[in-house]
Amino acid sequence: MLDTLAHQADRQLPWVARVFTYMPLMHAEDQALQDEGVACFSRLVADAPDTLRQQLQGNLDAARQHQDIIARFGRFPYRNAVLGRRNTPEEEDFLRKGPRFGQ
User: Fold this and answer.
1) What CATH number is attached to the domain comprising 28?
2) Which of 8, 12, 60, 74 could lock onto 41 through a cystine, CB 3.0 to 4.6 A?
3) What is the pTM of this model?
4) What angle do CA 32, 37, 42 make, to 5 degrees?
5) Is residue 18 scored above 80 in pLDDT?
6) DSSP label at residue 103
């Protein structure tokens, strides 16, 4: 996937395929990959025809939310239990009050 981005081959894909190409970036516990994902989704929205822009904006909004979580915690607190990681008090509060994304 990163090779696809490096060669800008993603820009030749249909809109929905680009969304799925960028999803791993949104779910990475790495700030640089999160930043790249937001950049990709931003470009996708900017390039989209008016008829798709609002729908694709939802993907960009979600990417920004994920980016913010990684910026805040350096990881996704939702994964802590399954990965055997202890929650910090701030993560515990986030898990009670924050966005759930279906978890």
Assistant:
1) 1.25.40.10
2) 60
3) 0.91
4) 125
5) yes
6) -
